[in-house]
Write a structure and sequence with these properties.
Distance between the termini: 96 Å
Number of domains: 2
CATH class of the largest domain: Alpha Beta
Largest sheet: 4 strands, antiparallel
Shape: globular
Order of helices and strands: HHEEHEHHHEHEEHHH
Strand content: 5-15%
Helix content: 40-55%
Structural class: alpha+beta
Radius of gyration: 33 Å
Strand order of the largest sheet: 3-4-6-5
Length: 275
């Protein structure tokens, strides 16, 4: 046998064995590394905390709180209002002050005549009209409407049911007057024209414009009512998500809310620029 001829063959076999062994070692090490890399843990969602947060938000949306006791709110001072004990969310108040100063430079006078109203405030307004203690457009609604649904609908032309008002949120204000006629002539008309052309620059929109093909239901036009939409638009989505007809209760006439579909036909029926 010629062993010299076998040497090259043996060398090739030896190299091949080394390559195969190295490859196997690399593969085993790779497998070991892959196995030992810890998996990324899934985010743990504390459902109890979420439920608690939703419960707190629900209380706020329904107006069951005192603005004077809430650090998120600030007392409105002169010259921004002439009324005592009026509160706004601090972020809304800050934006309003900037708008007020801009309007003043243009010769326009703005005055907040109504701001945050909690559930108790709104209940007083609603039940005063519902029970006939407050005349509504000169009418005693107890005598005028024996049908509860019709009575509610009449009040709902300009007043919200407790638990459904945007004024609960501290994002909405009534400016200068709550009479539509004020804004149709003279200085009132100039104020409204200025707000239409400029309020959006400061984050404010008019939620209740004239009804049209895009807003067929809900409250009548309110030229005095302006909302800080960077906040109120998000709260409107929260309201849609969190509030049900089981939450709208605790006042005279609350049983009509579901039949009227107050959430869809009134709360959610706002100018698209406020959504």
């Amino acid at each position: 046998m010629n062993y010299k001829k076998l040497i090259p063959v043996l060398v090739i076999i030896f190299i091949a064995v080394i390559i195969l062994f190295a490859a196997k070692t690399y593969t085993d090490e790779e497998k070991t590394i892959q196995v030992n890399v810890p998996a990324i843990p899934k985010k743990i969602i504390n459902k109890d905390s979420l439920r608690k947060a939703d419960s707190i938000k629900r209380i706020y949306l329904l107006g069951h709180f005192k603005p004077s006791k809430d650090t998120m709110f600030a007392l409105i001072s002169k010259p921004y209002t002439n009324s005592p004990d009026m509160y706004l969310r601090k972020d809304v108040y800050k934006a309003y002050k900037i708008m007020y100063d801009s309007a003043k430079k243009d010769g326009i006078s703005l005055l907040i005549v109504s701001s945050t109203r909690n559930f108790i405030n709104q209940k007083s307004i609603w039940e005063g009209k519902w029970k006939g203690n407050i005349l509504c457009n000169g009418k005693n609604l107890v005598k005028e409407f024996t049908d509860p649904v019709q009575r509610s609908k009449y009040i709902l032309k300009y007043s919200s049911m407790p638990g459904t008002s945007r004024h609960h949120w501290g994002t909405d204000i009534d400016i200068n007057s709550t009479l539509l006629s004020t804004f149709e002539t003279g200085s009132g008309k100039k104020v409204y024209e200025w707000l239409k052309n400029n309020a959006y620059k400061f984050g404010f929109c008019q939620p209740y414009t004239e009804k049209d093909s895009l807003r067929t239901t809900g409250y009548e036009e309110e030229k005095w009512h302006w909302s800080f939409y960077p906040v109120s638009s998000a709260l409107l989505l929260d309201y849609k998500k969190l509030i049900s007809y089981d939450d709208i209760k605790g006042f005279a006439g609350s049983e009509t809310a579901k039949e009227i579909d107050i959430i869809n036909n009134y709360v959610l029926s706002v100018n698209k620029n406020c959504q």
